[in-house]
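Quarterly update from the structural biology core.
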Amino acid sequence: MTMLSFLHIENIAVIKKLDIDFFEGFTALTGETGAGKSIIIDSICLLLGARSSRELIRTGEDYARVSAVFNFLDAQTLAGLEGLDITPDEDGSLQITRTIYADGRTQAKINMQTVQISLLKEVGRLLISIQSQHESQTLLDNSNHADYLDAYAQGSFDVEAAKEEYTSAYNVYKEIYNKLSSLRTSGKEKERMRELLEYQIKDIEAYSLKPGEDERLEERRINYRMPKSL
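Predicted structure, tokenized:
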């Protein structure tokens, strides 16, 4: 399972320099209010591509920097990184660095390569999930819900085979549905034309036209003379 193994914080708020090594298993950061727990979380959020602010820079310093190393990248994380065209180091680790400068500039690097903040956000979603009392980066993201269902059902049956079977059946359904919609539209169009023609026939029959009627009307039109104006 993907693991945050090292965190470096420099010139963030009241922290001058702090290095934290994380080990396998559960880690709890405890302390009184104001001890700096929130600063550590804010620093990690910067690595996830959160909006930076010059106010985070320690008073009197020109920059602030956060670095982290991730190890034991799982298959899902590796697949996601591959999709983003990112390759871990030879030892399988991933290093992320975010620097904020006093002039407002910000810089992000992944394995020493400069990247856009937008890419940093995509990578951050693969590595860390921050959940608080009122928000979550992944639990409330609709795009992840199908993955949760797949993971839940994986132990009961072959999810991939079921998805392929469902996709095949759905494609057949859509094909039949489209044909049925086309037939219904065609039927409605025929009914509309029938009603229009019946109306036109009734309208013509109402005039009780007789053979040669059009010739007589044409003759009357030719012989018609406008009355002289008074």
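The chain has two domains: 3-136, 163-223.
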